[in-house]
Design brief:
By secondary structure, the protein is of the alpha/beta class. It has helices at 14-19, 36-44, 64-71, 111-121, 133-141, 154-157, 208-218, 251-263, 291-305, and strands at residues 4-8, 29-33, 50-57, 61-62, 77-85, 88-92, 103-106, 126-129, 147-150, 161-167, 174-181, 193-201, 223-230, 238-245, 264-273.
């Protein structure tokens, strides 16, 4: 396996900035790809050890392109996550004034984060989506568009100027990125972990989603993300992408997943350290759902079966 990481490129994306915060990135060749799909396919094809891609932002929620790629195709697994605070700059060719801007471009996930600024400052500008914010900057450099919303750090890379900086509609906006590789043993639990899965109902019936969520509730597992995604099998056919607190080696998480496996199709996407808290900041486990309490309950059942209760 090549010692390389694929990432959503080209150079100068927020994805690259976030990737370079990982210590192991310094020992890998970092290869930009034109899309999330091509970066993940590089891992599936054995062309890269792992791929680093955006998966969620605090303004619009899950990045559907990434979620759909993890739902479909050959299974992949999440090993790490990184949170990056996001503010945009309006990048233009030197000499461009605000009144000259008729077209703007960025990744689709950027639009909800700058929509109000755009409405106030460039109400007549035509929005054109790009494969990434850095790709939008490249297209401005080539003269395709007048301006791009991207990181200020991308200006020098593409010979552009930052006409405006610090652009964001929501304070403290963040994007979550994940390092994705081929399936293997999850990293050891840290005490502040997250488990990601995809669930498909076996059949459509009243209370079906409640049954799925009930497995988490019964076992004391808190959910951090729940998003439905179409399966492509027709209107009304959805799967559910879920992030839950805890590690698959935690008894409460393992028991919840076993319960789900009995009643639906489950794709395990990994257990990995959370980026938003340290182990010392992890929320307490609810009474009755610690590993010790699960073990004690199992031992009690065994004693009952032996007539030793």
């Amino acid at each position: 396996m090549p010692a390389s990481y694929a990432y959503l490129g080209p150079e100068g994306t927020f994805t690259e900035v976030a990737l370079r915060t990982l210590p192991e990135a310094a020992t890998r060749e970092l290869i930009p790809y034109v899309s999330v799909q091509s970066a993940l396919d590089a891992v599936r094809a054995g062309e890269a050890e792992a791929a680093f891609v955006p998966i969620e932002n605090s303004v619009e929620g899950g990045i559907t392109t990434t979620l759909d790629e993890l739902v479909a195709g050959e299974p992949l697994m999440i090993y790490r996550e990184v949170l990056l605070s996001i503010t945009f700059a309006l990048l233009v060719r030197p000499g461009t004034k605000l009144s000259d801007i008729k077209t703007v471009s960025a990744h689709p996930a950027a639009q909800p984060q700058v929509r109000n600024w755009l409405r106030k400052n460039l109400p007549d500008a035509l929005w054109e989506s790009a494969a990434s914010n850095a790709d939008a900057a490249r297209l401005v450099q080539e003269g395709r568009y007048d301006a791009a919303f991207a990181g200020e750090f991308a200006a020098a890379r593409y010979g552009l100027e930052a006409l405006e900086t610090g652009i964001h509609d929501a304070e403290n906006a963040q994007t979550r990125f994940v390092l994705v590789g081929r399936p293997a043993r999850p990293a050891a639990p840290t005490g502040a972990d997250k488990t990601s899965v995809v669930l498909w109902q076996n059949d459509d019936h009243p209370g079906g989603l409640r049954e799925l969520l009930g497995e988490f509730a019964t076992h004391g597992v808190n959910l951090m993300l729940l998003q439905s995604r179409p399966t492509g099998a027709g209107i009304g056919n959805y799967c559910f992408c879920i992030d839950a607190e805890g590690h698959i080696s935690d008894r409460r998480v393992a028991e919840a997943l076993m319960g789900l496996k009995r009643i639906c199709l489950v794709r395990f996407l990994g257990s990995y350290p959370r980026a938003d808290i340290t182990p010392d900041e992890a929320p307490p486990v609810r009474p009755g759902t610690t590993d010790e309490e699960f073990a004690a309950a199992s031992d009690w059942v065994a004693r009952c079966q032996d007539g030793r209760f």
